[in-house]
Amino acid sequence: MNLKIALLGGDGIGPEVLAQAVKCLKAVEETFNHRFTYTEAPVGAVAISNDGKALPKETLQLCKDSDAILFGAIGALEYDNDPEAKVRPEQGLLKLRKELGLFASIRPVKVFPILSKNSVLPKKIVKGTDFVIYRELTGGIYYGKKSLNDDATLASDLCEYSEKEIARIAHLSFKAAKKRRGRLTLVDKANVLETSRLWRKVVTEISDSYPEVHFESIFIDNVVVQMMTNPSQFDVILTENMFGDILTSLGSVIIGSIGLLPSASVGSENAMFSPFHGSYPQAKGKNIANPVASIFSTVLMLQHFGLYEEANAVATAIQKSFKKGITTTDILGSEKYGTDYVGDYIADHIVDSDDDSNI
Amino acid sequence: MNLKIALLGGDGIGPEVLAQAVKCLKAVEETFNHRFTYTEAPVGAVAISNDGKALPKETLQLCKDSDAILFGAIGALEYDNDPEAKVRPEQGLLKLRKELGLFASIRPVKVFPILSKNSVLPKKIVKGTDFVIYRELTGGIYYGKKSLNDDATLASDLCEYSEKEIARIAHLSFKAAKKRRGRLTLVDKANVLETSRLWRKVVTEISDSYPEVHFESIFIDNVVVQMMTNPSQFDVILTENMFGDILTSLGSVIIGSIGLLPSASVGSENAMFSPFHGSYPQAKGKNIANPVASIFSTVLMLQHFGLYEEANAVATAIQKSFKKGITTTDILGSEKYGTDYVGDYIADHIVDSDDDSNI
Ligand SMILES: CC(C)[C@H](C(=O)O)[C@@H](O)C(=O)O
Ligand SMILES: CC(C)[C@H](C(=O)O)[C@@H](O)C(=O)O
């Protein structure tokens, strides 16, 4: 298969972890005889320092013209600490999501049994955790009208949702639940928010079309407790943009490191694959960032294109690195290896399991 | 001291846990020679079923005329599952907070070492946890304009904050940090939200007036991970209404039960004391709800009125119940006692430590 892949490394550790993902894809090309072409483009703080724009026109166009986008990370300290900055790195990511219509962020939270001691939670709680969060990604308070009055004494953000926005991701998530263990949990704050009540109404109506799926709703303040004390009860979690941001991050606590989890952001035309984690600027250039989340995002990408054997080969190589203890400093109980070394190890162990010469 | 106390039991387990708190206050009156008067009033689902209003005028007036309000809990399943209900129990609580100007919810998260095995988190992480969350309680998305269009296809909630709203709770929280370990952490999502940027700007400016307090800001998606993996780093956490709801609930995971933690909601004129937990309708009338959070809320109330010895006496009696394993089913590793029994035990063990006859 020929695939045009856009590489958006972004800020902080983004480019270095993405480089490891590309190594692995190159190994996939060679092993399985594919031809992927890679084109790099700037986004985020890096892009702002070039020409003042967090998402240059050329980068957006490249993404539109590509089959898939691999994304690194975004965000830089100098902007976090400057509430008055006019242009912000995150705008690049938010605009990209919006312009490409990537309305669903799909974030699997599944334990790697071999790493379960890495979690702060006890084994008996972590065991069997295997859920996926469907986070709405192009609506809600992230994108509603923002305002700040002239003397900067009053600010506002509007959280807005339409039935249509809710319905399209709801259908996606019910379909996923049907193929999985048949449970869907909607997270909202319907006892307070009007938008949550619309979510609850629309999703409850849609649930009638999926009688095989057990549907329930739960408040955001309750679900955070449930997720830490009984995560294996969840199968598919559906939620709006802001709650989804918080919940996916919390999900990484179960796994033990935010450096392991990937996400797919999909729309009707485009798809983007990236780690859960942020730009971790403190680690930039130190060769200590965990490349697994980024490498894992290629597994989601390969699956997206129906390349299941290839996806498996990458996943298996990642598992092998865990088994051999070839991991970065965020993973307990082994020697510590650099970002590069872990990337090389995984890329070197990508094999075609059907190929006799590998047995 | 004479105190007029309004008792708002509310829904679900609210009235039964509140009854235990009152038992303890009566023991305090007797032991320390005070005179408290108690007046009950309806709020929430109970009030709606009486006369259609979640907060009857008489209840509000009673609260205004009282020195303190003891609150139970609010919420009922029939409303949670009816997104189209016009009147909702929670409106009673939200209106009460607003009308009384209770702009700061103060929620201490402190481990009881003797119960530390009740937490899902390991002892080495739980150990030393002692922070307090200052949650803004009368602004933000809870109170901004809500709308739903006529054909119920578009909903919105406005999150709005003024400099003044931010400044008054910021000062309270900095003062608290000054008296405590001198650390203040502002939680926001300043990389996305305009209101968060105003919070960051205003609080950063105010931090200059408290040079003894170390001030830092952190994103909401990051803080949930930090809170589960390294909670002892926090001293005072300051945040807006919605994030505060989520964070305080998550704080209970560290403690091991949401049935243990109290909160004080304060304004310039009134103060209200209540458990963290909700109405837990499934447990109503079963005599299984943990009364400690409600009893603990009287400790905060007594402290609020400068009755430190009295507050201590209640806290000591609670500790004694833990030591003796006189706890409800949510607490691990002891026989299980009923709500009533635990309440009686604690009330019976409230003694004046200065009184020789008790030695
Ligand atoms: C960088 C930030 C804008 C982003 C978000 O909040 O969506 C990130 O936290 C994420 O979860 O993808
Ligand atoms: C009952 C509900 C409206 C309330 C809130 O969200 O504020 C509760 O969860 C709380 O934390 O006090």
TrEMBL record, chains A, B:
<keyword id="KW-0028">Amino-acid biosynthesis</keyword>
<dbReference type="GO" id="GO:0046872">
    <property type="term" value="F:metal ion binding"/>
</dbReference>
<dbReference type="InterPro" id="IPR024084">
    <property type="entry name" value="IsoPropMal-DH-like_dom"/>
</dbReference>
<dbReference type="GO" id="GO:0009098">
    <property type="term" value="P:L-leucine biosynthetic process"/>
</dbReference>
<comment type="similarity">
    <text>Belongs to the isocitrate and isopropylmalate dehydrogenases family. LeuB type 1 subfamily.</text>
</comment>
<keyword id="KW-0464">Manganese</keyword>
<keyword id="KW-0560">Oxidoreductase</keyword>
<dbReference type="Pfam" id="PF00180">
    <property type="entry name" value="Iso_dh"/>
</dbReference>
<comment type="subunit">
    <text>Homodimer.</text>
</comment>
<feature type="domain" description="Isopropylmalate dehydrogenase-like">
    <location>
        <begin position="4"/>
        <end position="346"/>
    </location>
</feature>
<dbReference type="GO" id="GO:0005829">
    <property type="term" value="C:cytosol"/>
</dbReference>
<keyword id="KW-0520">NAD</keyword>
<protein>
    <recommendedName>
        <fullName>3-isopropylmalate dehydrogenase</fullName>
        <ecNumber>1.1.1.85</ecNumber>
    </recommendedName>
</protein>
<keyword id="KW-0479">Metal-binding</keyword>
<keyword id="KW-0460">Magnesium</keyword>
<keyword id="KW-0100">Branched-chain amino acid biosynthesis</keyword>
<dbReference type="GO" id="GO:0003862">
    <property type="term" value="F:3-isopropylmalate dehydrogenase activity"/>
</dbReference>
<dbReference type="InterPro" id="IPR004429">
    <property type="entry name" value="Isopropylmalate_DH"/>
</dbReference>
<keyword id="KW-0432">Leucine biosynthesis</keyword>
